Each structure stands twice: as structure tokens, then as C-alpha cells.
């Protein structure tokens, strides 16, 4: 029997803490899966999964496919963790700026892309620098755009050749090779490859900083290579019904009775001498017993609360190892007639000035994100800002 910790795998540009909405109204969220199993004290099951975010749902999907009984427990009122969508005044507001990258290998295994009705972004970005926007395009998808961008100030021609070389490098490695290879910070990797300071500051910092919430690019090079490979293999997209369509699809394929919501786990207790079952204690005092083990699929702060100081077959840190990273997402609406931009493209701030990291017109990518005649604007900042901490 084991206790296993998991990591989220699907969605990029996912907020860790704050979601900011420019409008403040009462809203009615779209229908969610909100089943709750009436638990009896000392209920025994095969496996217990704590956390119904993407990681927990993926774990549940694999257990279900192998006919292993389980309970999936979450303290929230719906599945998805941070990957949620709220409906407000005809708009679909994802909780933070989120993009679904179709190249993620686990997502390809367990999701039905067709039913998600994925709406694609332009394969590239428009970079704001020195008062103008410059195009950075994927040459395999937008060849002529890429040729025209060779001489723009977002890096040198040599930088753009290095992007092509980096693409080849990651595509010729397996995922296992990437995730077990030599490790350094992303900024060290980029400088080691030979990218100029201009390319790093004007493109990589705002683009991958928006993915990692890390403008300093201290994130591990393994994750950079993995995401770079997924970007090369897939498209950047949004589900037509909002990012919440992803966890809702996963949950819909699981037994309803196996999903327990509005229920908080307060402790995991190691089996006593002569007992082979882990005890999972709930906030209401009830105890669940796991025959095969417990999967902890929550963020590190919550995992530390549940596991730190416990004597299991593995060592778990007594405190958070990495500082928490945060992002702020602001939503604005505008009349369609007043917005000249029609492209489904991501705009990033390569100027090194101001607090905005990136923005895009969500309704340009997926018209279903707003009512007719309206545009939904998503603006993202990295970090927390005093005076802007109102949570939806």
C-alpha cells in the first residue's frame, strides 16, 4: 500500500491563487457535477484520491479503467480545482488566464478533443516593444509570417534559428529523457543555448514567464523543454464551453457515486500494527479506509498540512520548498464595433515596463465566451498587487 503525490498535467497559464474579475455582480455558475456520497463511518474502498483537480481526475480515470474501486474527495463544490469557469452576464470567465495545449501526452490519452470543441489560438504571439507590436510566428504553421518577422527587433536572426534548433532538440528526445535530463534554471539554459539578452527579455520572459508565473525564469529547464515540446506538437486552444469543460468531461466518465464533494480531508493516518489499511479522516469526524493506498492530488501547501511530520515509507518536507507564485487576471468587456483586432492571438509585453504581462481577446479565439456584439478582454499580471486582491 502506498501514498502517492501527483502533479497537474493539462492546463498552462493556470493561476495558483487569485482570480480577478473587472465586473462585480452576483452570478449563476454553469451546471457542475456536484454529487456527494453519503459516507458511513469507517467506509472501506480500494483507493482514496484527495483532490478533484486535473491530477486527481486523471488518477481516478486510470483507476476506473483498471476496475479499481476508489473515492475521489474534494472540499470544493465542483470538480476541477483551479480549472473552473464562471458564467456572468453572458460571458464565460475562466478562473485566471488558462490555455489548453493539445500536445500534452496525458491529455491525449484521457480526453476526447472532438467533444471539447477546441478553438485555436494563432501559433505565435504579438510582442509589444518600443511602442509597436511585432509578430513572432511558428514557421511550420505560419511560414510567411515567420519569414517577415526575421528582421524585427524581437531578437536577432540567429535567435530565430536557435528557436528552430531548440524545437528539433526537444522533439528528438522522449518525455522520459527530458524529465530526467540535466537540470538547471530556464534562464541558464537559454543563455547556454546562446539566445541574446534581447530575445530573452522581449520574448522568453513574458511568454514563458506567463506560463510559469516566473519572470526571472528560475523554473527548472526540464519543465521548459517539456512545455516547449508540447507547444511544438500541439495547438494552443480554449474549449468552446470554457476551460471547465476539461475536468467536467473527465468527471462525467467516472461513476457518480465515486465523487465526494464539499468534503475536507484533515489527516491521513498510517496503518497501526497489524492493520494494512490507511485511515483518511474527514473534517466531520468520519473515517475512510483505503485498501490499496492514498493518492494526494492537492497543491503543495495543502499536501504539507496533510503529510508533513508523518512517518510514511517516504520523506515529505515539513515546510513548503518553493515560494508560492501567483497571478492576477482582469476581465474587461467592450463593444465589438470598438475593437479593431479580430485575430485569435496572444499579446505579450516585451517592453520590460508596466505591470501587464499578457492579454488577449477571448472572444476572438472562442466567440462563445461572450454575448453577441461584445468582446471579452483578458489581461494578466504576474504576482500579487496591493489593492487588487478582491477575489470572486
Automatic annotation (TrEMBL):
Highest taxon, organism lineage: Eukaryota
GO molecular function: oxidoreductase activity
Pfam families associated with the record: Amino_oxidase (PF01593)
All copies of domain Amine oxidase, residue ranges: 54-388
SUPFAM superfamilies: FAD/NAD(P)-binding domain
Name the UniProt record assigns to this protein: FAD/NAD(P)-binding oxidoreductase family protein
